[in-house]
From TrEMBL:
Name used for this protein in its record: Polysaccharide biosynthesis protein
Taxonomic path: Bacteria, Pseudomonadati, Bacteroidota, Flavobacteriia, Flavobacteriales
InterPro entries hit by this protein: ANL_N_sf (IPR042099), CapK_Type1_Caps_Biosynth (IPR053158)
Organism (species): Mesoflavibacter zeaxanthinifaciens subsp. sabulilitoris
PANTHER family per the UniProt record, alphabetical: CAPSULAR POLYSACCHARIDE BIOSYNTHESIS PROTEIN (PTHR36932:SF1)
Length: 455
């Protein structure tokens, strides 16, 4: 099928994509989708106690069902009497599920056969990809939740949408013709490749995006940032009153990136966190604050000794993963709780300060400790001429910074850039700066600004 697709003429490729997507949507938006969407909408104004009751009820039901249906959890909970777990306050009685344990035992974790559900594959940017299976019911729930969230800003399937994700859809002929997208004309979604984002092609992306006039943009913020920066560098103004909202996916969005995207595309940027594995949802409200949606799961913030902390690694239990149950799953991300959990948006789901990102999205210095993603991004402050950069750490003594530059990058800007790095990593660490023509994205289509390859 893949060979046939790439050998087909463009109109046939677009037809295949349109029909295939329509088939997928028939599964995602199945018979229970509307019921769940209506339910989520009706629960938007629930009190914290009401939300907590829903969470507790779902939690008890979910862990018992997982032990009953999953071969893995039968063994994993062999010596645990689940009747002693009366509420979420007893969750510490259950062991934590590591990502490697999930990978090794994935077939035994499944409660249904892949052919009876919907398969989702993780990107594999930090290890071997995972293949999880969702039940049709859980898929309906997850899309109902997403559409209820995005629907607050006018989105629904069928409205013109530009989608930037890790789909490999381009042929050699497409690249030769500077055409970096395919179109689902039935559902009005244009899919843009994230594998060809470089200085030679950015003008074609931007021009087509302007001409396409989407109402919504969904996708990797790093890709949208590069297109926006190209437009700014070349004086290309994005038309106003075109895009109603940008919904970033798959990557952590800093305040600086959100601001650039919002200003350049003349719209709001509304973030939301989940995962390909099926993590419960974290959403950004209209006030710009992040909330843990406790209807969709349990969120624990733990330190290395598995004690509750204000900022730490995220361990999740997701109520929409009946096909591949995730219970106390160490997902590999970090979040920071809020000191003031109440929000003026009136949604009583707990507020957090921010989603920090992946645990290995940092550089480690012997002098200064961890330099997280936000501080790495801020090394561009006061620097002109760097189009894109990536920092790679293979040892504790040194880092290599790959930079793609334009003609405005000179010795003065290099000096400022290096000073910014010295302010963060100290004076001992060796810093190698290498100019390159391009920096490759991962197999998933994501761009990683930090590649921490040390243990």
């Amino acid at each position: 099928m893949e060979k046939l697709f790439f050998k087909s003429p463009l109109f046939l490729q677009n037809l295949i994509i349109s029909l295939f997507n329509t088939y997928l949507y028939s599964k995602r938006y199945g018979r229970k989708y509307k019921k769940y969407k209506k339910l989520f909408k009706s629960q938007d104004d629930l009190s914290f106690n009401e939300l907590k009751n829903i969470q507790n009820e779902k939690f008890i039901k979910f862990i018992n069902e997982a032990k009953f249906k999953s071969t893995f959890y039968k063994k994993f909970y062999k010596n645990i009497d689940l009747s002693t777990i009366k509420s979420i306050s007893d969750i510490h009685k259950l062991p934590i599920l590591k990502k490697e344990d999930l990978r090794k035992n994935i077939n035994e974790v499944h409660t249904i056969k892949p052919k009876d559900g919907i398969i989702s594959k993780t990107g594999g940017t930090t290890g071997k990809p995972l293949k999880v299976v969702f039940t049709i019911d859980d898929t309906n729930r997850r899309y109902a939740y997403l559409d209820n969230f995005r629907g607050q800003y006018g989105y629904k399937l069928g409205k013109k949408t530009a989608w930037f994700s890790g789909k490999n859809l381009l042929s050699k002929k497409d690249i030769k013709n500077n055409r970096f997208w395919k179109y689902d004309f039935i559902n009005k979604v244009r899919y843009y490749s994230t594998f060809h984002i470089n200085e030679n092609y950015l003008k074609y992306y931007l021009n087509d995006l302007i001409n396409f006039k989407p109402e919504f943009i969904v996708g990797f913020p790093s890709t949208l940032l590069e297109i926006a920066n190209y437009g700014k560098r070349n004086g290309i103004v994005f038309p106003k009153n075109t895009i109603k909202a940008i919904f970033p996916t798959a990557e952590t969005v800093s305040k600086e990136v959100r601001q650039i995207l919002s200003i350049y595309y003349n719209t709001i940027v509304i973030d939301q966190y989940a995962s390909s594995e099926g993590a419960p949802f974290i959403f950004q409200c209209k006030e710009g604050n992040y909330h843990l949606d406790i209807r969709t799961g349990v969120f624990e913030v733990l330190d290395h000794d598995n004690r509750e902390v204000n900022q730490g690694r995220l361990v999740v239990t997701s109520f929409t993963t009946h096909g591949t149950p995730l219970i106390r799953y160490d997902i590999g991300d970090m979040i920071k709780k809020s000191d003031s959990p109440k929000c003026s948006c009136n949604n009583e789901n707990p507020k957090i300060d921010k989603v920090i990102g992946r645990l290995n999205d940092y550089i480690f210095s012997k002098e200064t400790g961890k330099i997280n993603l936000g501080n790495v991004s801020n090394t561009l402050k006061g620097v002109e001429g760097i189009i894109k950069f990536q920092v790679v750490q293979k040892s504790i003594e040194e880092i290599t910074i790959l930079i793609v530059t334009d003609e405005t990058f000179d010795k003065k800007n290099e000096k400022i850039f290096l000073k910014n790095w010295r302010d963060r990593v100290g004076q001992i660490m060796k810093i190698h700066v290498r100019r390159v023509d391009k920096i490759l994205v991962e197999k998933s289509g994501k761009f990683r600004i930090v590649k921490n390859l040390i243990s």
